Amino acid sequence: MSTDSTDAIHARLLALAAARFEQDTSALGPDDDFFDALGIDSYRAMELLTDVEEAFGVEIPDYELQGVTTFGALATVIKRRL
Amino acid sequence: MIPPERYDSLGELLRDALVQFKTETALIEVNRKREAARLSYLDFTRAAEPLARRLQDHGVGPGDRVAIVMSNQSKWLVSAYAALFRGAVLVPIDYKLTGPEQVALLAHCRPSVLVTEYPAFRSMPGLEVPLVLVTEVPEGTDLSADRSGATVAERWEDTPSDRPPPDFVPRARSDQATLVYSSGTGGRPKGCILTHDNYLEQYRTLTQLFPLRTGHRYFSILPTNHAIDFMVGFVGPLAGGATVVHQRALRPEMINDTLRRYRITHMAIVPLLLEAFERRIDEQLDTRSPVAQQAFGALTRLNAALTLGRPRRHLSRRLLKPVHDAFGGHLELLFCGGAFVDRDRAQRFYDLGIPVVIGYGLTEACTVLTVNDLNPFRADSAGRPLDGVELDIRGADPRTGVGEVWARSRTVFAGYLDDAEQTAEALHGGWLRTGDLGYLDASGHLHLVGRAKNMIVTAGGKNIYPEDIESAFEGVPCDELAVFSSEYLFPGGALTGERLVAVVRAGAPDDAAAALRERNGRLPDFKRVRGLLLWPDAFPRTASMKVKREPLAEAIRAKLDARAIASI
Are B117 and A36 an interchain contact pair (Cβ–Cβ within 8 Å)? Predict the structure, then answer.
């Protein structure tokens, strides 16, 4: 499996979310809404985003995150930037 | 600081300020952790004049509308000033709305010019504005592609700089300065007509209490289209010679970095962010030893005792250095508004030596009606009316004193654009019906306890009207469904936990709840219903079958209380 496949990105995202919010994310899928699944607000989501940008070595502009609420959608945004 | 009494328009006031403070720094723009731009007041003028000339050449003059859809950045303020210089009516639109929502508002107000950023421009299908000035267009992009003939788009950066200087257009105090939408999430647009007098008067009364002047550095993170940042992140600092700092990517770590690096003194935030700041303080405290935590607690209590009557900034900074350092070490005030502030949290910040200025206002009254003057700090109220503001509690309950808050002031708006019906609901003989429930105590402080109109304000400061989002729940399996604000249904809460509640009449409540959850999953956060209230009786309806909300709410109040709302 190549390291930048959407599945691999998704798995890394869940690991980052698990570390940041100290939660078990193993059961979460790409269609899960991260606000709901992690019980977080938009500010906490930005904290996760900082981890994501560092881990993947990308910079994601704010406008690309408009309407992004699921792990799958976030993985797609990251993939475009890799 | 320039006294606003001598000026007739925002453009005139700002034009003078730009000359007066020409050697001071007006704007700093940070992109992530890099400084992207720094403009003196003189640079600001030089950036704005060609743009004002471009507007003039396009025919923009008194009363023409110029809309802005931009995130917080220096070009927002430069463009806004250029429009005001030409006597235009500025239409600041929320850049966080979806493209179609923005297009709907633009179709409602029909501006001559739109100033925007490329990503926003790209997401506005069917846009029809005669001239669009677009910033940050990627190299090699053809702006005319996919646009109807009614729209001409140009790069903001390509504005000619070799044209003659623009002509300043004077305006009278009673002329319109802005058109500000106080709801934009679908449904009926409410475009508030605000005059130059509204703003100049608001600026006068606010600066009596909280002046922004040379040496102050204001960090602008609330959207500048919003009433609060428009005043304290645009008009206020520029008229006072202060510096506005913008941050292009808002990440928590970068906020802290900017606070420190640019020695920020003032900031306006929404309650959601205050909560996040508190969490950061707690997380840092948790890493310390129990002894250090105890010492910190003792110092906090000492500081609270010493600042009981008034803030003592330098003392608090010495006593509680780690906390103040976390906020950059220079923070003097946090303005917190847009929604209701948790009083314990506000008190905690004050006890730590960071005054949180709590106010109460609405777009229909320019910026704020009441504000806590820190003399002494009181977290329990929304503050006292500003100079020139009269408040009246209408229909007050003789026992509790609670009624609807009405306000009269020179800052009250002139009405909604093209909507006589909603204007007549809001304005009565010079009085503004706020739609909020509250009471005034013996010392003149306002206390808010609920909503007289069916709406909620999210912790992020967004106004949500349940009627506007009800259509998202069409087809949920039930006999009848109506969405209400929790604080309208059952007033008396703290207004910090308001939520949307679906009132449902259903034979199979579990199916309805499951369907609501499923719909929620497809909606943005702020449009989701968070409560379910089952109601056995048929909803009262008008002849045209619209739900009569007030009678329904009254019937519910008579039989149930807030405990009947189930979380979903």
Answer: no
Return the structure tokens found at B385: 């009316």
- Top residue of A31, A50, A62, A81 to mutate, by most chain B CBs within 10 Å, is A62
CA distance A12 to B458: 32
Contact criterion met (CB below 8 Å) for B134 and B120: no
| Secondary structure letter of residue B68 according to DSSP | E
**Cα dihedral value B567, A39, B328, B73, nearest 10:** -90
pLDDT in tens, B521-545: 888 778 899 999 999 999 998 877 7
Q: Considering the domain B4-258, what is its CATH architecture?
A: 3-Layer(aba) Sandwich (3.40)
* Per-residue pLDDT tens digits for B443-457: 999 998 888 888 888
> Half-sphere exposure of B357 toward its Cβ, with a 13 Å CA cutoff?
23
- Supply the DSSP string of A16-82, one letter for each residue: HHHHHHT---TT--TTSBHHHHHT--HHHHHHHHHHHHHHHT----GGGGTT--BHHHHHHHHHHH-
Show residues of chain B in contact with A44, CB under 8 Å. Answer: 276
Report how far residue B389's alpha carbon sits from residue B374's, in angstroms, rounded to the nearest whole number. Answer: 18
Question: Which CATH number is correct for B465-567, 3.40.630.30, 3.30.300.30, 3.30.70.1450, 3.90.180.10?
Answer: 3.30.300.30
CATH architecture classification, B270-451: 3-Layer(aba) Sandwich (3.40)
For B110-189, where are the alpha helices, taking DSSP H only?
Answer: 118-122
For the ranges B34-48, B195-209, B479-493, the lowest mean pLDDT is seen at: B479-493
Chain A residues near residue B251 by CB distance under 8 angstroms: 46-47, 49-50, 53
Q: Which residues of A touch B522 (CB under 8 A)?
A: none
The two three-digit tokens of residue B503, written as one number = 């009132």
